[in-house]
Design a protein that fits this description.
about 15% strand; alpha+beta
Length: about 220
């Protein structure tokens, strides 16, 4: 407690406060001498301009009001139709009519055709005489040179001769040939010159000729 009092009585502690107060008095005295305080008062008394800033409002667009809702017209009231009594005349029952329908038979068709008669059997062909022998000089077929060039050494031909009643040969028909078409021309050439004994009726004769190449 004693120390606190001694510290409060110490003039060095209050020295800054005293200095501040002295400076303040000097500043006020200087302001009074130079007229600075008057200028401050005039500035304070000058009118203060005030501006009022109005809030800019967005223009409201004129929108047409919505159309009123369409109301359906109420249906017309139901008026029942007037009752009308119609008397239907009673018709007398007529007796049923009976109609007879006559069916006509179709006219008879043409009579059935008779089946055609079978054709008469063909007359049997002439009998072929085998191994017929000519008369007079016999012309024999020659071994063809073409067969020799082709290396063919043997062959066989069966021919039919159509003989006239006077014994001459009317036609030579090749029935079978081995090998084919090699000896046909030579056989027809030789047999067409044969002659046979005359007969009242001509006939067909068969001739079998063998070919063999000899040195």
């Amino acid at each position: 407690m004693r120390n606190y009092r001694e510290t409060q009585r110490n003039p060095a502690k209050h020295l800054p406060s005293i200095v501040m107060v002295g400076l303040l008095h000097l500043l006020v005295g200087y302001a009074l001498v130079t007229g600075l305080a008057r200028k401050v008062v005039e500035v304070i008394k000058a009118p203060i301009e005030t501006k009022i800033i109005e809030e800019i409002k967005k223009p409201i667009e004129d929108t047409p009001p919505p159309p009123p809702p369409k109301l359906a017209a109420p249906p017309p009231p139901f008026i029942p139709p007037p009752e009308v009594n119609i008397q239907v005349p009673v018709q007398a029952q007529q007796a049923p009519t009976i109609t007879t329908v006559t069916t006509q038979k179709p006219p008879p068709g043409p009579p059935p055709k008779a089946a055609p008669r079978p054709a008469p059997p063909a007359p049997p062909g002439p009998v072929v005489r085998k191994n017929v022998k000519p008369i007079g000089d016999i012309v024999r077929p020659v071994f063809p040179r073409q067969a020799i060039r082709d290396g063919i050494q043997t062959g066989n031909v069966v021919a039919h001769l159509v003989i006239r009643p006077d014994g001459s040969v009317a036609e030579v028909r090749i029935i079978r040939a081995t090998p084919p078409r090699i000896f046909d021309r030579e056989v027809i050439r030789a047999l067409s010159q044969w002659h046979f004994a005359p007969e009242p009726v001509g006939f067909i004769g068969e001739v079998d000729i063998d070919f063999k190449l000899t040195d």
